[in-house]
Amino acid sequence: MQFMALIYNAEGSESSYEGGMGKIMADYWKFGEEAKAAGVMVTGDALEAVSTATSIRERNGKVELTDGPFAETKEQLGGYYLLECKDLDQAIEWAQKIPTAKYGTIEVRPVMVFDQ
After folding, report:
1. Torsion angle of alpha carbons 17, 19, 25, 26, nearest 10°?
2. 81, 98 in Cβ contact below 8 A?
3. pLDDT digits over 20-57, tens only?
4. Within-domain flag for 116
5. Is the four-CA dihedral 75, 76, 78, 79 of positive or negative sign?
6. Which terminus of the chain is more exposed, N or C, with fewer CB under 10 A?
7. Closest CA to 4 of 58, 74, 84, 99
8. What pLDDT, in 10s, does the model give residues 80-93?
């Protein structure tokens, strides 16, 4: 069963991570290697800053483009991992190891499967 681990944090909040940016990157590398070795990680990527985002909406036949994210929130989506786990409990075990869990939020959701 696949689960998406969505990584949220307020931009700049990584400065509260003990050891700084170098430690965060080392911890992310370690997480990725452990998840790959365990056969849990399908893929994962970081996203560029929210200042690079464009939101697209179509209303009444008109397309509207807006710079920035769709929602005005403190925490923004910064990246994700697609995990292959036996159940939600295992997905949560892996998601809590993602370094941003220490200063941000990791949202875990099952990936919807459509019948072929």
Report:
1. -130
2. yes
3. 888 999 999 999 999 999 999 999 999 998 888 888 88
4. no
5. positive
6. C
7. 84
8. 999 999 999 999 99
Helices (H), 11-106: 20-37, 88-95
Q: Domain range for residue 88?
A: 2-110
CATH number of the domain that 45 lies in?
A: 3.30.70.1060
Across 10-96, the runs of DSSP E, i.e. the strands, are 41-46, 54-59, 62-67, 76-84
Please name the residue ranges forming H helices in 1-116. 20-37, 88-95
Q: Please state the rounded mean pLDDT for residues 11-26.
A: 86
Residues composing the chain:
116
Structure tokens at 88: 């939600």
Confidence of residue 16 (pLDDT cuts 50, 70, 90): confident
Domain count, the chain: 1
* Cα 10 to Cα 14, 35, 101, 108, distances in angstroms: 8, 25, 12, 18
